[in-house]
Amino acid sequence: MSESELLARHRAVLPNWLALYYDEPLEIVRAQGRRVTDSSGTTYLDFFAGILTNAIGYDVAEISDAIRAQVDSGVLHTSTLYLIRKQVELAEQIAELSGIPDAKVFFTNSGTEANETALMLATQYRRSNQVLAMRNSYHGRAFATIGITGNRGWSASSLSPVKVSYVQGGYRYRDAFRDLSDADYVRACTDDLRDVLETTTSGDVAALIAEPIQGVGGFNVPPDGLFAAFKEVLDEYGILLISDEVQTGWGRTGEHFWGIQAHGVTPDAMTFAKGLGNGLAIGGVVARGDLMDSITANSISTFGGNPVSTAGAKATLDYLLSHDLQGNAAKQGARLLTGLRDIAERYDVVGDVRGKGLMIGVELVEPDGAPSPEAARLVLEETRARGLLVGKGGLHGNVIRLAPPMTLTDDETGEALEILRESIAAVQEARK
């Protein structure tokens, strides 16, 4: 069956709002290392990794063997009503890595569910349904997480179980304070936070939830120290800080294991998912013990923390730590940022290059500096034609997102940079 036939069947039975990349969507049928192969036999270097999820890459023996061993036991599922050894071992490891005092961990099936759980914990603990979120944020596609998403392109409804107020500081490239120095920017955003608290809330807010680097919003990076300044204000009110580490966790930013560590603060809770399972469905919350234990009703998770997912996730985390993939993310990310900034100087279709580690955004613009979603669409197609898969996002859909597996090699970094240069050059030429 051809990809066009599969596409027709897809459109007949799946929702219209289920996004697909490319004018001619592809089906990935095989993968190894950092490369994937589609059903027509074309192989690509993968620089989006299933939306940052295949963090280690594909067909990694240590991870596959751990999954096979669990499958061979015959136990794919038991539910959290029973003890699960790998769940306990993984929770112990994440609690220690979190740096959160007396931490406890709850496993879910996704980042969306992790953020829903964090909101439930915070609102229960603080006995308030008021939540602060960042402008241009994205936290998932469920009822409460859509309610705190500050990006209209991903917010399907204004209905919400929480009352949200949005804070400045998410998308610096186009916000009102963009021309300020880092110190003045942090000061202006902190003043805005205080003003939002005094004018749009009753003061007893449950939490601020924030991505240390916005993911769907276009890999936007605030100045280091922004959330430290925010936390001083939050502490005055007793407001909790939740760090959404679904995309920034596990060393992907290179300089730190968790994105929030760049700001020198320890949050009350962190949510995680994506890269932990290297493709398996797993997410979760790590939080202060008193916060985690504030739920008084009965609760379980049917599939969260199941034996297969936690076995694979434990093997993934062990591999990541033993191979210093955080260090490799820092090294390859620095090369990519330097190379992309050189490209940006040569082609004015590139308005901004930003990021940390292997989490890099390339914002594409019109000659007058306006967002150019068409240029981003064309770069997506041009890179595919040259054998590279990249992502796309941003408030205006004009940001190319680069987030390859953290096992990326020197040669692959060089290969990707050349493809990106050729693709951006082609789009620039087409604009003439």
From TrEMBL:
EC number(s) recorded for this UniProt protein: 2.6.1.44
Top class in the EC scheme: transferase
Signal peptide: none
Keywords: Aminotransferase, Antibiotic biosynthesis, Pyridoxal phosphate, Transferase
Gene3D superfamilies (alphabetical): Aspartate Aminotransferase, domain 1, Type I PLP-dependent aspartate aminotransferase-like (Major domain)
Cofactors (names): pyridoxal 5'-phosphate
A GO molecular function held by the record: transaminase activity
UniProt cross-references to CDD domains, sorted A to Z: OAT_like
InterPro entries, per the entry: Aminotrans_3, PyrdxlP-dep_Trfase, PyrdxlP-dep_Trfase_major, PyrdxlP-dep_Trfase_small
Family designation: Belongs to the class-III pyridoxal-phosphate-dependent aminotransferase family.
PANTHER family in alphabetical order: ALANINE--GLYOXYLATE AMINOTRANSFERASE 2, MITOCHONDRIAL, PTHR45688
Subunit text: Homotetramer.
Full protein name: alanine--glyoxylate transaminase
